[in-house]
Amino acid sequence: MKSDVVIVGGGVNGCALAYRLAKKGLKVILVERRFLTSGATGACGAGIRQQWSTKENTKLAIDSVKHFEKFSRELGMDIDFRQGGYLIINHDEKEVEQSKKNIKMQRSLGLDVRFIDRDEINDIVPILDVEGMHAIGATFCPTDGHANPFKTTFALAKAARRYGANIMTHTTLTDIVVENHRVKKVKTTNGSIETDAVVNAAGAWSKKIAEMVGIDIPNTPFRKEIMVTERLKLMFEAMVISFKDGIYFSQQKEGHILGGLPIPEEREGYNFMPTFMFLTHMAKTLTRYVPSLKYINMVRHWTGFYDVTPDARPILGESEEVKGFIHCHGFSGHGFMLSPKVSEVLAEYIADDKKDEILDSLSLKRFKTGKFTREKSVVG
Amino acid sequence: MKTVIVCRCEDITEKEIVDAIHAGYTDFEELRKNLRIGMGPCQGRVCIPLVKKILQRETGRKVEENPTVRPPVVPIPLGMLTKGWENEE
Ligand SMILES: Cc1cc2nc3c(=O)[nH]c(=O)nc-3n(C[C@H](O)[C@H](O)[C@H](O)COP(=O)(O)OP(=O)(O)OC[C@H]3O[C@@H](n4cnc5c(N)ncnc54)[C@H](O)[C@@H]3O)c2cc1C
Ligand code: FES
Fold it and tell me: What are phi and psi of A15, to 5 degrees?
């Protein structure tokens, strides 16, 4: 087999990039070792937020929302995109100070976001217990929201196939052959593919793919737990999050309340067993935020992996050591919402030789030079 | 086709399943996730065997996958979870 580009990983990022490259007329093969959405994408909280502390994440998210708004029509399949906003609860003065700084930067990038007082919180999400949450205020952006990660990924894959991409599921990438510091060929469980470019979109397993070409990336996998309740009548539209408590939850279109938070002693590694500690911790925090949920059943609980980098921002762009090896990983728990713009930037780089400046600030090199800013607005 | 509900928890009909298979969702897991089959309170104990049969019938291919049943095994009210089990992992 031969291909212009080989993409490793059938999550939302791999599929989005396959779609964009195939649409530009490139020959694309995507390999996924299990099924599409079997990685973090299928475990994800579905949230789409533009309120970040770093400019790079905010920009990527704002541009991604513009794509999400068009995706259902563009891809020919409904991805259940809903814009109910994100309500970020603030608990102390220090948080409020940071929020005001963030809002200033976010507004300078054109985002409609504002600070709201404690007594306005219930106007947005009536069922919240302001007292129980220890809230003193919040920030709100009405164009944040969520979409169905399965449908988004399947819609992208379907559109990619329409443009001729070959998406091979149940196919594992086993090795990458490099000659004279250039990608030459990849080996998979379903044959070898000659190619000049390999995109590493393998999520929490990206480190293993990078090792195949002798590159060490500073990513660590972290187990994250998430749960869903039975269906309820629709009560609120906004995603509610708190950086201090680490909690996030929203009500999905079908009526389920979906949410998660980190357990105190989470360690890095590939342990995927769900814990009781999560359940009690989640139930306590969630019922403190919304006491009426006490009587509601939790029906499922599962885990997935965050692929975390030292500054909680993704690593994107071509490697300097190995030409044709392209990074697309390290999303640190927010890779679903950034995928529309990330895939656009990378597709323009690969197909049109256009280099967006964001690829400089999010290159792997930043960890060597030490020139990076940590993203502070993380949950889960 | 008569309306036959296959997944009672998520309210999914046989027709929806057959249509999805014909639209290209022939991977058992992808079919399931696209339609939310097995994501209800019974965690697929009722519907998964039926969906497997339908997929086998429509594709003429044997379906091996056995999806994981996630905890809890039965639904639990959140209020109950806030008490006890403090020290368990
Ligand atoms: C509990 C949880 C909640 C989250 N909530 C949100 C949220 O609300 N909003 C948000 O934006 N993000 C969220 N995220 C993060 C988001 O899910 C991920 O950042 C995103 O899905 C990453 O997509 P991806 O395509 O890069 O990687 P993945 O979806 O992980 O895909 C990587 C794929 O690579 C495949 N693979 C690995 N090795 C190989 C190999 N050798 N050969 C072939 N294939 C291979 C894997 O099987 C996998 O399917 C959450 C994550 C978790 C775990
Ligand atoms: S019948 Fe399908 S999940 Fe219960």
Answer: -70, -40
Choose the final residue of a domain: A289, A308, A327. Answer: A308
Pair A40, A114 in one domain: no
Residue A52: name the closest of A88, A26, A97, A4 by CA: A88
As a residue count, chain A comes to 380
Q: Is residue A121 part of a domain?
A: yes
Instruction: Enter the CATH code of domain B5-59.
Output: 1.10.10.1100
Examine the domain organization and report whether A109 and A163 are in the same domain: no
Q: CB distance A279–B72 less than 8 Å?
A: yes
Select from A68, A26, A339 the least CA-distant residue to A160.
A26
- pTM, 2 dp: 0.95
Cα-Cα-Cα-Cα dihedral sign, residues B19, B25, B28, B34: negative
Considering the domain architecture, whether residues A304 and A334 belong to the same structural domain is answered as no
This model of the complex carries an ipTM of: 0.84
| pLDDT tens per residue, range B32-70 | 999 999 888 888 888 999 999 999 999 999 887 776 666
Q: Give the C-alpha separation, A206 to A376, whole Å.
A: 23
Cα angle B72-B77-B83, degrees, rounded to a multiple of 5:
90
Prior bond of B77 cis (ω within 30°) = no
Searching chain B, which residue's CA lies closest to the CA of residue A293?
Answer: B78
- Contact between chains at B88 and A276 (C-beta distance less than 8 A): yes
CA distance A223 to A191: 32
Give A364 Cα–ligand 1 centroid separation in angstroms.
19
CATH number, position A360:
3.50.50.60
Helices (H) and strands (E) in chain B, counts: 4, 3
Spatial CA neighbour of B21 closest among B8, A10, B13, A170:
B13
Query: What would the pLDDT profile of A208-265 be if each residue is shown by its tens digit?
Result: 999 999 999 999 999 999 999 999 999 999 999 999 999 999 999 889 999 999 988 7
Are A160 and A30 in contact, with CB atoms under 8 Å apart?
A: yes
Say yes or no: A274 contacts chain B, CB-CB below 8 A.
yes
Which atom of ligand 2 has the smallest separation from the CA of B37?
Answer: 2
For residue A256, give its domain range.
Answer: 83-144+220-308
Distance CA A132, CA A291 (A): 8
Is A58 domain-assigned? no
Does residue A18 sit within a domain? yes
Considering the domain boundaries, does residue A358 fall inside one? yes
Where does chain A show beta strands of DSSP type E?
5-8, 28-31, 47-48, 86-90, 114-117, 137-141, 145-146, 166-168, 173-179, 182-188, 191-194, 197-200, 220-231, 239-241, 248-251, 256-260, 297-308, 315-318, 325-329
Q: How many domains does chain A have?
A: 2
